[in-house]
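Final report, results section. Input specification for complex C-07:
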Amino acid sequence: MTFLLRRAAWIALTLWVVYTVSFLLMRSVPGGPFSSERQVPEAIKRNIEERYRLNDPLWKQYLDNLRLALRGDFGYSFKLGDFSVNDVIYQGFPVSASLGILAITFALAFGLTAGVISAARRNTGWDVLSMALAALGVAVPNFVLASLAIIVFVFWMHLVPAGGWGTLRQLILPALCLSAPVAAYLARLTRAAMLDVLNLDYIRTAYAKGLSERRVVVRHALRGSLLPANSYLGPATAAVLTGSPIIERIFNIPGMGSHFVEAALQRDYTLALGVVMAYTALLLAMNTLVDLSYALIDPRVKME
Amino acid sequence: MSLVALRKAFPYLALAVLAAAVLYATSFGTLTRADLTFNNATEIKTVDPPKATGEPEGRVIEGLYEGLLRRMPASDAPPPTNRTNTPYTPQYATADDMQVSEDGKTYTFHIRESARWSDGTPVTAHDFAWSWMRMLHPETASEYAYQLYYLVGAENYNKAQFEVGSAVEVELADRPKRTQTFPRGTIVLGKLLEIRKPKGDEKTISATTVYVVEVDGSQRFFCRSSSSPVANGKPLEPIVQILPDFESTVGVKAKGEDTLVVTLNNRTPYFPDLVAFYPLYPTNRACIEKYGAPEFTRAENLVTNGPYCIQFRRIRDRVRLVKNPYYWNAEAVKLEVIDAMAISSDVAALNMYETGQIDWTTNVPPTVIPDLGKRCDFYTAPILSVYFYRINCTRPPLDKKEVRQALNMAIDKRKICERIMRAGEQPATNLVPPGLTGYLPPQGLEFNVEKARELLAKAGFPEGHNFPKIEILYNTHETHQAIAEVVQDDWRQNLGINVELRGLEWGTYLDAQNKLEYQVCRAGWNADYADPNTFIDMFVTDGGNNKTGWSNGRYDELVGAAAKETNVERRLSLLREAEEVLIDEQPIMPIAFYMSKEMIRPTLKGHSLNALKVHPLHLMWMERDETSGAAAP
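Structure output:
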C-alpha cells in the first residue's frame, strides 16, 4: 500500500515536471500557432491572441492552463479549430490502443515462441534462423520494414490494403511492423533466460524423473524464463508508443501518434501538450503495472 | 496464502487480460465504402466558412454550403471531355438573379425561393446579411475578412474604427454565454457624442474609456470595465463591444426575405468571384446561437445549405459527407456518400489509389511523374499558382536592383521545371500566371549568364568578388530543397557567389519570412479569384503579404488607380504597368507556374480540370463498371 502511495506521488510529480518543461519548451521556439502564408491585419491578430489568451504574461498563461489541465481540460486545439484537445485524444486513443495491443500480442506470440524454440533446439538450423531474424528485427528501422512490407504484402501478394483505418484487415500489416523490434528483442531475452533456466538443478531433476523434454520445457522451464519478458513489457509499451508515429504516418492511421507529430510540427501548443501528458500518464501507469506484476510472480521481489 | 494463490493464477489472469485486450482491439466496426473516396491531402482546420483559409477546406466547405454564386462551368459549356482546363466562372447558386447598377457599385441579388437549410428552413437574404456581419465582427477573427473590405464601411466595422458623431452599436455586457460572441447581448444603437480617454497604458485605456452616446434623445455612458461606477452623476453601463452601427454603415442590406442589396466602395469587376468564394458562404444563425462556436460544427449539430451534410468526422482520417435531402437541386446530386480522406503523405495516397481504396488524389509525388506520365488516369493542367523567391530588399547588397536582376538572370529555370517539378510546369519570368482573360502578362528577364555577370560587375562585384554569403530559406520539403540546390549551384557556377541553404519547418519558416529574417526565401501564391489583382496587390508598400521590405511609389499609385478604374481594359493595362514595375525592380524572382497533378479513376465522371483547382463534388458521379469493382482488393 505504501508502495502504491509513494508511486502515486512520484507519478504526480513527474507529470507536473513534464507539463512544465513541455509548456516552456513550446513557448520558447519561434513561430506562433497562427503563422500562415497570409498575413492578417494587426487588429485581427490581436483578437485571435486574446481569444486563446496568448497575450497574457507567460506566468499567467502557465498558471491558467495548469489549473484547467488539473481538471482534465486541455482547451481547444489551435490548428483543428473545431475540436477540443480532449476530443482529439478521445478519438485517437482507441485507434492507437488497438494498434498497440495487436502489436504487443503479435510480439509476445512470435517473440516467445521463437525464443523458446531456439533455446530448446540450441545450435540447430531453427536457432540460427530465428536469431538471425531477431537480429534483423532489432537492426532494421521500422520505416524501412514498413515500406518493404507494403511492397511485398500489398503490391505483390495483394493480401492486405495499403493503409487507412476502419477494418481489421487494415490493422494487420501496421501492427506486424510495429511489433517487429519488440518481438525480436523478446525472442533474444527469452532465449537467454531459457538457457539459464535449462542449466538449473531443478531442470536436471525433472529430466532425471524421466519427464519428456516437451513437458520439462513447457511446465517447468517456461515459467522461470518468462520473468525477463514480463519486465520488458514496460519498455515494450514505450517502444510501441514511440514507433507508432512513424507507422501511423506510413499507413495513414488516425491515431495518437499522427496527432502528436502533426501537433508538434504545426505548433499546436494545446494539442501537443495534451498528447504528451496522455503519453506520459500511460507510460507511468504501464510501468507501475509491470512492477506490481513482477512482485506478484517472482517471490524474490518484495514491494518496498 | 492468497498471494501464493494469486501467483499460481497469474499466468491465466495475464492471458485473460490479453484476450480481453485483443477482443477490444478488434471490436471496432467495419466501415462501408463510400460512393466516392478521394484524398483531400490534409486534416481540414474547420468547416466554419469565414474561418477557413485553405484549399482542402474549400473542397469540403463547397460541398457543405452554397453561396449566392458558385464557381462552376457555365451551364451551356460543352461537357469536359479533354485534358485541358474548363473555364470556371461564377454561376447562379443560392441566388437565381443578380443585377448590377450602372456605376458597378450596387449589386442586387435575388435569393432562390426553393433554397433550404439542411433542417428544412428557408435560406433568406437575412441569413447572408447576418453571416457577413459575423464574418466581419472583430471577435470572429476571420482571416479572410478583408475579402469583404470592398463593401462600404466593412473595413471600419472589422477594425472597430469610428469617430465622434458617427452611428455606433453598443453591446451591453449581458451575453447569455460570456465567452460566446453569438448570441450577442442587448444591442443599443445611437450616435457617439464623446470619447473620454483616461491616462495610462493601452490596456487601461481600452478598459476604462467612457463612451458618451445619444440614445433616443438622452445621453448614456458606457464603459468596458464596470469598476468605475459614475460619470456626470449618471451610472456607467458595462459593455463588451462598441462598433460602428452595422445596419446603417455597412453596405449589405436584406430587403425582405429574398432580396440582398450590396453597396461597394468602387467598381469591382471581380466581386462576383469573391461572392462565389467559400468564405462568403452563409452560416446558420439559429444553429450557431444555439450551440456556440465551435460546437455548432459537430456533425450532429451542423446545419448547412449545400448539396451535402456531414455524417461524421474522424480526425486525421476522413470527413464523411452524405447527400442533403433539403438541397434545392437535390435531384441533380448523384453521389450519395463521399469520403474526403486526410492523407498527408503523397506516397501513401498513391499506394491507396493504386490498390483501389481511393478514386481520386489531388497531388502526387514528383519522383513518380515520369512513370505516371504515360497513364490515362494521370492528369496535369496549368493552374493559377506561381512558385517564386522573395528577396529581402532591406539587406545590402540585395537592396541594389542590379544585384537582384543578376541573381534572377543566372537561374536556369527550365532545368528546374524539367528535372525537378517534372509535370510540365513552365518557367516564369513574371508574377501573374498566364490564362487570365484579357490580361497580357509582361515579359520578364530571361536566363542570360553573360548579362547577369555584367550586371553584377556594374553593382560592384565583378565575378562575385567581395559578394557576401547568401542564404536561401525554404520550408522543409524535398521539392523545395531540390530547387534551392539547383539555384545554389547556378549562382555558384554562373556568378561565383557563395550560397547556403536553410530548411525550416512550416511555422518557423513563415515567422522568419514575416519578420524579414531572411535574404532570399521560397514562396508560392494561389489565386483567390480569377483576376491579376489577387497577385499584384500583394506587393504594395507595407502590404500584409509583401514581406520583402520593397516599396515603390509608382507601383502603389498604379495599383491604387487600377482599384478605382471603371473601364475594364484600362484597369487591366494599369495592372500590367504595375507588374512591369515589379519585374523590373525584382523584389521577387518568379521561378515557375505550377501545374495540377491528379490521379483520377476513369469511372469518376463530372470532374473537370480548371485553373482555380475548384472541384464541386455535387457535379460528380461514378460510372458503374463491373470490372473496376472487382479489381479492388
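The CA atoms of residues 299 and 310 of chain B lie 5 Å apart. The longest helix of chain B spans residues 2-25. This concludes the modelling results for the funded period.
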